[in-house]
Queue: 2 jobs
Job 1
Amino acid sequence: MEATALKDEEFQQFRSWLHSTAGISLSPAKKALVAGRLSKRLKHHRLPSYGEYFRLITQDKEAAELQIALDLLTTNETYFFREPKHFDFLREQILPKAKPGQTFRLWSAASSSGEEPYTLAMTLADGLGTTPWEIVASDISTRVLEKARSGHYPLERAHNIPKRLLSNYCLRGTGSQEGTFLIERSLRSRVQFMQINLNNALPRLGEFDVIFLRNVMIYFDMETKREVVARMLPLLKPGGYFIVSHSESLNGVTESLKLITPSIYRKP
């Protein structure tokens, strides 16, 4: 059977759906990506067209398939110690000012498969001494959250982790687990993974000293960026830091934060 083509009007349906559900704006250039990522699901359900698949996921009784489609279209590439300057800033500028005895709280708001929150966990464990800390890590995709909770990765994913942190906080797999490593349980237990859609009302999460929102706003249009950031800012403590990716900016998104250094903002 020859591969089904994704028609323009079908692509348009997925674009509108993804924008209203996840706030993600797909450019016309992403048509091949959508076709590629969803083609296996068409085969799985033996459906003749992407239009039929769209009907399937938008029927109420197919909530599980809807989540699979959402997972497939929202997962982005990530790795340990990505954009290392942010972790340097956290270690050198923010952590030394943490109040002893007060729990230091951090939110990784687009945590994907866990590399970012575990990088943050290693940085906090290493830099805070006896000061208690906790991390909330959230993503829209249940599939990547499941992977993140396990804290289990192929060994080649470890190449950016400094050797000292690798030996202190990671366990190398042996026997049938050879070629993999596991984030140590004491670290995993202090990261709480939750499914959160930043385009909806946020659950009660408490206040944070630092919020990381990296490599997700590039998928949002300006209106969505403003709404998402406005929803998140009440959860940032006064004096807290809001960190975006080096390829992103909050210019025109909010007036409530002060730029400290490119991609790092502070709430007055």
Job 2
Amino acid sequence: MTSVKYIGLDVHQATIAAAVLDGNGKLVMESVVETRGSTIVEFLRGLRGELVVTFEEGASAAWLHDLLKPHVSKLMVCDPRKNALLKSGSKSDRIDARKLAELLRGGQLSGVYHGEAGIRTLKELARSYLTLTQDATRVMNRIKAVYRSQAIPCRGRSVYAVRDRSEWLKKLVEPGMRRRAESLHQQLDLLEPLRQQARREFLAESRKYPARRRLQQIPCIGALRAALLIAFIQTPHRFRTKRLLWSYSGLGLETRSSADYGVKDGRMQRLRKQISVRGLNQNHNHDLKNLFKSTAISASTRKGPLQEYYVELLARGIKPAMARLTLARKIAAITLRLWKKGENFDPAKLKTQAA
């Protein structure tokens, strides 16, 4: 019978602490190796049996995942935000590696999805575009903050335009304030061409994926949002139900209940009591949540079947904020159904399409 080795890796920039447990939970080896591909692979090749490996999600997780996957029987990149047991007791690299191996053996780790390498290019281009967009937005906010600090109204986008720049700068009397605004405008001039180039490259790469056209059938999801959905979700088959996608997108409800069962007439039965709702789940993909929320906001203001659905929710007495959340959950469910089952969007089936 093949022996199983449970291996916990505590990964750092220069070194990796490794702990190896056997099937009975006995520590059979501890080691510290250099964070280098050849060294790590050589360490694993020196172990016999079925190798089950885990390490925490981090900056080098994608590289390490692709490196180790061909050399082990099972690989789990675990979520560090759910490893509360690592925070208890003494802490060191060797202790953390041993705890990871023990949690892996006990099945108490939550995995982080790492897709195939084939979609990595689209993911990196998406990150590049979103990062440049965030940087440009930050600079634009700082430009307006300069004018607002001098009680100068600056609504709209004309304050960013090159043709109107001299007129705006004349409104700043203080020389240092004017020079600061000029510097911010120069930053924006450098960022905007880079952002547009990143957008073009990202959209060009997304055309390689057939799912893009199907997702664009959903109202208010254009080429850019469809490409972002593919980059964030990667494959719809990772979510067995729509509720799993809601949780991953930060649209799932967290509930609390206690003392759910009681004894009546000598028989145990489940009590009918109201479950306490504690809001939306906090551990989620923030970019995907922002995408679904922005789509819901656009759909609620743009004429179409989704707006009609939103108006129906309001007519039933649902508050606007909750109606937008319900609409975002509906859009996420439709996205999963169309992509997973290969269906086309049908407005006539809107109420039942994602049921």
